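User: Some background: our group keeps a shared notebook of sequences we're curious about, and every so often someone picks one and asks for a predicted structure to add to the entry. Today it's my turn. The entry only has the sequence so far, pasted here. Could you supply the structure so I can complete it?
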Amino acid sequence: MHNAPPVVFPVGRFVWARRLLWVLALCGALGLVFWQANTNSFGVKWAWASWGICVLAATYASTSDILLGGYLVWTGEVWLWRDAKGREMEMQLRVLLDVGSALGLVLRCADAPWYFPQRFAWLEDRDMPQMWHGLRCAVYSRPKAVRKPGDHVSDAF
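Assistant: Of course. Here's the predicted structure to add to the notebook entry:
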């Protein structure tokens, strides 16, 4: 199997993230209003409190979860994030959503501990159509295996 060629793909800010958060919060609030109108349960008050805490936490978390503009770079072996100043850091990449013409990705610094925040990126083919196929191949390719001099390949199947 051949590896995908190196790719450099621009990533802009996902400007709809905050709006999407508020639409989901509004849908939750409408559900709570409907529940409150149809019942006199004491649990509704706790549900409103939980809803408020969740909306505040999601708003706070969303400010650090969204990547600012930069470049996603596949070297043929590793993924790198290159920011606007040209600094690069190795990233682990996971596909969250693939709809053919767009990809939702989760990025995490390769050296970071497990509690380090993940970043989300939304990539679309219209941002760079000539590189889209190469990017998709790179997203689903595995890094090249580095062989050590003492490693032997088995011929048995």
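Suggested note for the entry: Residues 44 and 50 are 10 Å apart (CA to CA). Confidence is low (pLDDT under 50) at residues 153-157.
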